[in-house]
């Protein structure tokens, strides 16, 4: 299936590794020019080199890497300036740490909101009107399965990502919907990423358990009996950006191998 994305421009945040990298990879394979951002310059350069090697034969695809903190005004300005135009925006940021809400002061909350709610909104504000003027635009917000099934220890993430989800529910159904712009959320469950491995390993060590056994137990608790891969996450992202997905907006797509037990 031709997704109709050849020649489009995408800004993909936090794309040096993990799910952001998976999305950037899928878009490059569809002929999309990408600007990737991340704070780690070395990892970002390495990912840019990998992406350039994925460009399909016969296509001219640009890959630009902009190192910086996308949660800052300076980081946002640099990333936006690197794109001749933004047809696709993939918002992504690492989640805030777990903990007890009694220990979180205002600054802790503001940091979480900046990364997982206010930054995506700022980038949407900077790009969505130009998308509407051109008659095509796709915004993908990578949030979390915790938006549907909150996790007690992840209150910062639950709050910030749910706030973004609520805001988008209204914006996606505004006048931009009639002008070819869609906004959707991608909600990952457990994916085989460096972040998941680090988190599970730290938790196992803290509990005095074997990290490998903890990994296998978590994997077997998923109905699919495996973790997701960044490539398959990216493939869903690419479809949501496609011309075929133009009638799909304001939705939150859960990718979790069947872990969420609800009907809706």
Describe this structure in words.
- The protein is 44% helix and 14% strand.
- The protein is α/β, with parallel strands linked by helices.
- A 7-stranded parallel sheet has the order 3-2-1-4-5-6-7, sandwiched between helices.
- The protein is globular.
Q: What string, H for helix and E for strand, traces the elements in order?
A: EHEHEHEHEHEHHHE
Q: Which outline best applies?
A: globular
Strand arrangement, major sheet: 3-2-1-4-5-6-7
Unreliable runs, pLDDT <50, ≥5 residues?
A: none
Overall mean confidence score, pLDDT: 95
The number of helical runs is 8
| Helix fraction bin | 40-55%
- Percent range for β-strand residues: 5-15%
Task: Provide the gyration radius in Å.
Answer: 18 Å
Sketch the major β-sheet: 7 strands, parallel
Distance between the termini: 29 Å
How many beta-strand elements? Answer: 7
Structural class: alpha/beta
């Amino acid at each position: 299936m031709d997704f109709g994305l050849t020649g489009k421009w995408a800004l993909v945040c936090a794309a040096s590794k993990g799910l952001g990298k998976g999305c950037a990879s899928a878009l490059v394979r569809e002929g999309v020019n990408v600007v990737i951002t991340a704070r780690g310059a070395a990892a970002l350069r390495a990912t840019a080199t990998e992406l350039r090697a994925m460009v399909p034969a016969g296509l001219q695809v640009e890959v630009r890497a902009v190192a910086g903190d996308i949660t800052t005004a300076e980081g946002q300005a640099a990333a936006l300036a690197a794109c001749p135009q933004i047809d696709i925006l993939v918002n992504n940021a690492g989640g805030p740490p777990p903990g007890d809400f009694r220990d979180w002061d205002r600054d802790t909350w503001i940091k979480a909101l900046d990364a997982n709610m206010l930054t995506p909104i700022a980038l949407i504000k900077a790009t969505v009107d130009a998308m509407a003027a051109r008659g095509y635009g796709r915004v993908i917000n990578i949030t979390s399965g915790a938006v549907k099934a909150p996790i007690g220890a992840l209150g910062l993430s639950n709050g910030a990502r749910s706030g973004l989800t609520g805001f988008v529910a209204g914006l996606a159904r505004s006048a931009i919907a009639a002008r070819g712009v869609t906004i959707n959320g991608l909600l990952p469950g457990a994916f085989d990423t460096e972040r998941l491995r680090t988190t599970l390993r730290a938790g196992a060590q803290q509990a005095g358990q074997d990290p490998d056994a903890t990994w296998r137990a978590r994997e077997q608790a998923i109905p699919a009996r495996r973790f997701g891969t960044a490539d398959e996450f990216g493939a869903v992202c690419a479809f949501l950006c496609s011309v075929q997905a133009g009638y799909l907006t304001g939705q939150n797509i859960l990718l979790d191998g069947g872990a969420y037990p609800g009907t809706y």
